[in-house]
Design a protein that fits this description.
The chain is of the alpha/beta class and 320 residues long. It contains 12 helices and 12 strands. The protein is globular and about 60 Å long. The two termini are 24 Å apart.
């Protein structure tokens, strides 16, 4: 995690004049999104050093050496340039072998789960033995750009709320190692699951280096309908209502509460990190899973519930 904490109060103080002019509360992020703070990269840190640190820690915990990695998938939304891929820098700095395939998979906040699914398929077919999936996210620059635009412009309420989601973002990094289960007794099992698309909603959330512009109400409704539909289609075969933990993509309090209520989940089984970390993009779900690992027991059924703007969802089960 980045070394600096940036509170919602600090961001709202920078936007105090805008909020007052629009007659919006200065506690908007806390009241609407439930986000109290998020992490910001400190001097000497960035999304790359964060991703490399997470990757090295994941390999050490899995007892897999860099020379044993056959595949590196970077799944971050953040990127300093269009090409080459972010994966090539990570591959070099991690000291992975020249034989290790490396590339980016980008699918908004669903990228990490997609990367895990792709890697598991390549392992299952014998193409690779070990994969490293990473995501390093940097919300710092887009925060600064958005705040400056809102302060220097003259946004009305609708225009301000279209950019509100940008202020909920946080920075951070996550990594996971996947390998042949038979070679790692006692490891967690990736069992697979279902994916569903509702790409008619591809214009509801559009992001770039300049900002993220969102139809929040439309995105919440479209995303909720998609997840609930996928859940009910899968329930007769997977019986996920009996799972022990539901690790969701972290967006806000309203999104989490809506999904929890819609499919009748026990809130005690739905961990949240958004209050202190914000929305860390595709790294949010694995960061939340990592925060839960000490409370999970061998044999627990863990459902990963990913959603990405576009819209796409993936519900994937782990046997802990």
């Amino acid at each position: 995690m980045p070394g600096t904490v940036t509170t919602s109060a600090q961001i709202q103080d920078q936007l105090a004049d805008v909020l007052d002019r629009l007659r919006l509360p200065r506690t908007l992020l806390e009241r609407v999104a439930g986000i109290l703070e998020r992490r910001t990269w400190s001097p000497g840190e960035d999304m790359h050093t964060g991703a490399i640190d997470a990757a090295n820690r994941a390999m050490a915990q899995a007892n897999v050496k860099p020379g044993e990695i056959d595949l590196l998938i970077n799944t971050s939304v953040s990127r300093p340039h269009l090409e080459p891929s972010v994966a090539v820098q990570l591959h070099h700095r991690l000291g992975l072998p020249t034989s290790a395939v490396n590339f980016d998979v980008t699918n908004a906040c669903l990228g990490f789960v997609n990367g895990m699914s792709l890697a598991s398929s390549m392992i299952e077919t014998g193409q690779i033995r070990h994969a490293l999936i990473v995501a390093g996210e940097n919300a710092d620059d887009v925060h600064a750009t958005t705040i400056e635009r809102l302060r220097s412009g003259n946004p009305d309420r609708d225009e301000f709320m279209q950019e509100f989601a940008t202020l909920t973002l946080g920075s951070g990094a996550a990594a996971a190692v996947m390998g042949v289960a038979d070679h790692h007794p006692g490891s967690h099992r990736f069992l697979g699951g279902v994916t569903r698309a509702a790409t008619q909603y591809h214009e509801l959330c559009v992001g770039s280096a300049e900002g993220m512009f969102t139809d929040a109400a439309g995105l919440l409704k479209g995303g909720l309908d998609l997840v609930v539909s996928a859940w009910h289609e899968a329930e007769p075969e997977w019986h996920w209502s009996r799972a022990d933990r539901f690790v969701t993509h972290q967006v806000s309090r309203s999104h989490t509460d809506a999904i929890t209520e819609a499919v009748d989940l026990d809130p005690a089984k739905v961990p949240t990190t958004f209050p202190t970390l914000g929305n860390v993009g595709p790294a949010s779900l694995p960061i939340t899973l990592a925060a839960e690992q000490d409370s999970l027991r061998s044999g627990d059924r863990v459902l990963l519930m990913g959603v990405g703007s576009g819209l796409n969802t993936a519900l994937m089960e782990l046997a802990w």
